[in-house]
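**User:**
Make up any protein.

**Assistant:**
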Amino acid sequence: MSLSFYDEIHLRLLPTEEKLADQNRLYAGLIFYLDDRRLWRLETGYMLQSIWRSGENEQGLKRTNHTLRVTITSDAPFGKK
């Protein structure tokens, strides 16, 4: 088992009349390895997503999403060696 943390800041480059920072995603989770070679893993965690000036907002109000994420990821190679 391992821990996973990250913080993503999304920037809006165009159009320039809008705010530069569009949204932020803060994530913390646990990684469970599903095989001995660690090629397959299950990751589950919590993500706090803050969105500024979305289409659902008026006058620059912020929308916040609380999300439970569950992902299955693989680093297994395609094809045979």
Strands lie at 2-11, 21-33, 40-52, 62-74. The mean pLDDT is 84.
